[in-house]
Fold 3-dehydroquinate synthase.
Amino acid sequence: MTSTGAVQVDLGDRSYPIEFRPIKEIGATLAGLHKPGKCVVVTNDVVGPLYGQIVQDSLRSAGWAPEYIELEDGEAKKTTDTYIGLVNRLLELQVDRKTPVVAVGGGVTTDIAGFAAATTMRGLPFANVPTTLLAQVDASVGGKTGVNTSHGKNLLGAFWQPFLVHVAVDALDTLSDPEYRCGLGEVVKHAVLEEKQDPSDPSKWVPSTEFFEWLEANAEAIVARDQEALKHTVRRCCEIKAAVVSQDERESGKRALLNLGHTVGHAVEAVVGYGGLRHGEAVAMGTVAETHLAVLRGCCDASVPERIASLLRKLQLPTGLEGLKTDDLVKASFMDKKREQAHITVTMPHSIGDVRLVKITPEELIPAFESLTTNAGSADAAREEDASSKGGAGNGGASNGEANGAAPPSPPSANSFASGAHQNSENFMTGRPTTRVHQPPGGASSIIFG
């Protein structure tokens, strides 16, 4: 049975709980940690119509006086303009340094709202109410906030810890299938880097394959959104991330392990264009590519990236991308936040549960970028594996289309991906049927599931 208690992020006087409660209980949860009064709910135009009123009613019933701000949703809106607009709106509402900002939405919303809270009046208290799987297992925990710039992803931001993360797994009921799969990319990342305290010496952490093996055994239930499997998945990811953040709040060492898949993934996102590829999909591809690089450098057995790719296929996630120019990816990697002069700190899996950090030049990433087209076989293999495992698309949010966290409907782009069985070929952003890419950045491009 999955535990129901809070997970604590231990950071001294900045410690906070991750509570697992229904979204309608946010008012009481918040009141248990902060004296009720004025607060500001920040959400987006996709989540707002679904949960905005529920959240405000809950807050009022617990003695809060909520103001309400709705942002445009989507990675393409994670900009300095959106951030400045939000700061100005907070000031117009005459917030003071004790006015909590309550971020309700996916990772884009929690990142922007957290950054605005960190910088408005030199710091406002804020709470996260993540409503997407990616935000619940990763983005809402750890205090990283920020926005994208024309130079790269999350290059303007701050470390600013929330005083509460309220994880409402019931909010995932309205999450679209593409956005649900997106979150599973971060789930697999956490499983690859899982460690556990050494029973004989709790001050030491040792590699663990327990969560990864559990995911392998329960992939079909996770894809089907089985509630018990989903609750365990979300909670275990929060436990893993909380343990790492508690040891290294500001990414001076061990926390950099949480960037597994992100060096390659962020470069791919930058070249494709923000909003053209879901973040979790890019992380999935990046995790396989970076593990493949570890194999080429002689520190990892070749079976490891194949095993990771196999799990990703079971969860209906992409493992490769064709058509991008290696030179463009190398150039994009120069803007990586982890770069120190001529080197980038890259995650290097040695085995499941044993991920290490190594400094390399962007040029040394070329084999990882090149492996994107070949590292896991063909889309046909993915289809066969999906069919044999009955891994259909999740059904919890299928009727809601783009509800909760998916980008708002927009004219179909040319981007398409090859999908597993029981899925249509879809546009990245809208889920609508589409055709192969014509000319994205770097040439014709398609995502490979397999």
In short: The longest helix spans residues 227-247. The first strand starts at residue 7 and ends at 9.
